[in-house]
Amino acid sequence: MSLSFYSWARSTAAWRISVWTTVGFSLCSAAAFVVMYLLVARDVQRRSDAWITGEATVLLEVAANTPRDTLDTRLVQEVAELASHEVIEEGRPNGQPRQSVFFLFMRYGHDPVWVGPEPRALFMDALAGASGQPGLPSSLTVPGHPLPFRVVWDKGPAESRLYLGFADTAANAMMHRLVERFVLIWCAMALIGFAISAAGAFRTLRRVEQISETVGRIGTEDLGRRLPEPQADDEIARLSRTFNRMLERIQRSVDQIRTVTDSVAHDMKSPVTAIRGSLEFALIHGNSEDWRERVADAVDKLDRLSQTLNTALDLAEADAGALPLKRESLDLGVLVGSLIELFQPSIAERQHKLHYKAEPGLFIKGDPSLLSRTFANLLDNEVAHLPPGCHIALSLRQADGYAEFALEDDGPGFPQELRARVFERFVKGQHSSGHGLGLAFVHAVVQAHGGCVMIDDSSSGGARIRIKLPMTMVSA
Amino acid sequence: MRLLIVEDDDAIRTFLERGLAEAGFQVDAAANGLIAEALAVEGVHDALVVDLGLPDIDGLEFIARIRDRGSTAPVLILSARRSVDDRVRGLEQGGDDYLTKPFALAEVVARLRNLLRRHSTQPESSRLRVADLLVDLVRREARRGDRLLQLTTQEFALLEFLCRNAGRVVTRTLILDHVWRMRIDPATNVVDVHIYRLRNKVDVQGVAPLIHTIRGIGYVLKLL
Fold it and tell me: Which DSSP category does A419 fall into?
């Protein structure tokens, strides 16, 4: 039982939170009470001191002013008894002698005057051992009396001495009751505090527990599940929302991966079938000339296939944030210029006109190999998809801290239905022979460089692609 | 020319052994780093083909080890990883070369030949001659017979590369890599158009054609 309680207590943060809250709260309130108690006790003592010094003065005056005769001691005693009656005493039945006040008046040649509890010898002994300044109250412990007495003494006329002692039992009893009640209230407070904090903590952490249960039940098959999102805007609600957003992202990636694997599988089917067919045909029929033709055809198709695979893998790496950029400082103009030199003959062969305009000194930090492939992709697109005789305008310019590469043509433009999804994988025009990964690759590379790609219509109704890449600051 | 192939994948090793033997090389092969190291340090090989993913040792470490033990033969690295990391690119600057899988046999052959040519101790001639084609690397001009060819800078660079590899098939990616210094793989026939233009200037009517297309593989410059 105790073991299972222990392991349960270890497994729940709510328990620990409430225990520590209660302990902290109880310690603080106890400390506050102790401070208060000490203040009250000091006040009580001051009050008793004031009383005994006052009474002692009065009694000394009485002793001094009374004519010396046999009755004067009697008078002093009467006054002392009268004074002692001012004291309220706890738990004393009427008629019993007072236990909390004593009065002693000693004079040479006279019996000492004693007003107070008996046996007086105990008090005499205690007083004989006491020291202190006349007129200043001090504490005195008398055997048989639980409370120490506050005692003041003073010199009277004719070498007489007057002692006055007082133990404030009423105040003491009050203090006692105060402690008792405090302990009671304190225990109740601790219990209630513990109950409240435990209830709060358990209630809150139950929600966390629910979240962890729900999340635990979400498998890859039912990624559509979501946590209930509470109206409140506290930490737990935020946790739920964060979880839901994370699930959203995971679901999107998983969906995308499924699309990619489906598309790859689908896109590979037809070339693989065609390649197989070609080779089969060559095997069964044909002379060596036929063979060459068909095998060469198969090799072409395989090259396309491995190109698709490579780009798909690059994209997968980019998605995983693992596209390794080997950044170096490079002049975009030089890079694009050499690509244009490479593509110019192909562009001219299709009777396109290429206009190239570039601002000099566009330095960026980028991976030359990935950026070459990116721009080559776009130029490939122009070469492959434009009807003959188009105008292509390529420009490089600086635009608020970015180097902007703009490629526009007066061809048919992007099909409207593809516009929103051109950067997704395997999205391609109906008549496109490409693998549908080119623009997705462009997008991934540009994003990895901290830039952006925009697609819209050119002024002549064709397509326009703009790529912005952050420039490196060149000190003037 | 004797080669050492270090590749643990049986299918690829066998295919490389056969293909490279067919291409006229003498071929040794090893399936793991241990055997390969013992063979490599004999110093009898002119070039090595090394797969990065060996079962017992990292390919780059293997290369570092045989270099430590005195092997100077150029290495063609085969990498299954698409993103070739900086260390491999670094090796490329050190005179070696790399290819990512999947690759074409012709590509391997072409790159090996290119590596071997660069590594050969014979002094580079300042003139290249193939049949009646003469390429003067100092004066940057090319002649076919007595006819001076009017070539653009790029066409000259392309012709120079073809001449340096005269008689050997060069692939499109190899051309892009060495003439344009770009590791790209265009989907359109950009290289073919350049070759076509160059051919129009080099192989005019009435002379024996020198530039030939090998379908599905690449180009070769030679007198048939």
Answer: G
Q: Is residue B85 less than 8 Å (CB to CB) from chain A? A: yes
Q: Is B32 on the interface with A (CB under 8 A)?
A: no
Nearest to B187 among A317, A322, A434 (CB): A434
| Chain A residues in contact with B86 (beta carbon < 8 A) | 324, 326
Three-class SS of residue A391? strand
Please name the member of B102, B176, B197 whose beta carbon is closest to the beta carbon of A306.
Answer: B102
| Secondary element (H or E) of residue B19 | helix B10-22
Hunting for tokens 């052994």 — which residue is that? B17
Closest CA relative to residue B223, chosen from B208, B206, B203:
B208
Q: Does B83 touch chain A (CB under 8 A)?
A: yes
C-alpha Rg value of chain B to the nearest Å: 19
- Domains defined along chain B, listed by start: 2-119 (3.40.50.2300), 127-221 (1.10.10.10)
How far off is chain A from B70, nearest CA to CA, in Å? 31
* Burial of residue A121 (number of CB atoms within 10 Å: 0-12, 13-18, 19+): exposed
Of A11, A14, A20, A9, which is closest to residue A206 (Cα–Cα)?
Answer: A14
From the list B82, B89, B196, the residue facing A326 with the nearest CB is B89
In this complex, which of A293, A299, A380 lies closest to B188 when CB atoms are compared? A380
> pLDDT band for position A458 (50/70/90)?
confident
Estimate to the nearest angstrom the gap between the alpha carbon of B53 and the chain centroid: 22
Nearest-angstrom CA–CA distance, A78 and A56: 14
Identify the architecture of domain A235-319 in CATH: Orthogonal Bundle (1.10)
- The reply to whether ipTM tops 0.90 is no
Q: What is the pLDDT of residues A398-446, one digit of tens each?
A: 988 899 999 999 888 877 777 766 676 666 555 555 556 778 888 888 9
**Amino acid type, A296:** A
CATH number of A328-470: 3.30.565.10
Rg (CA), chain A: 51
Cβ–Cβ contact B87 with A under 8 A: no
Among all chains, which residue has been given the structure tokens 């270890």?
Answer: A10
Q: Do A338 and B180 touch (CB under 8 A)?
A: yes
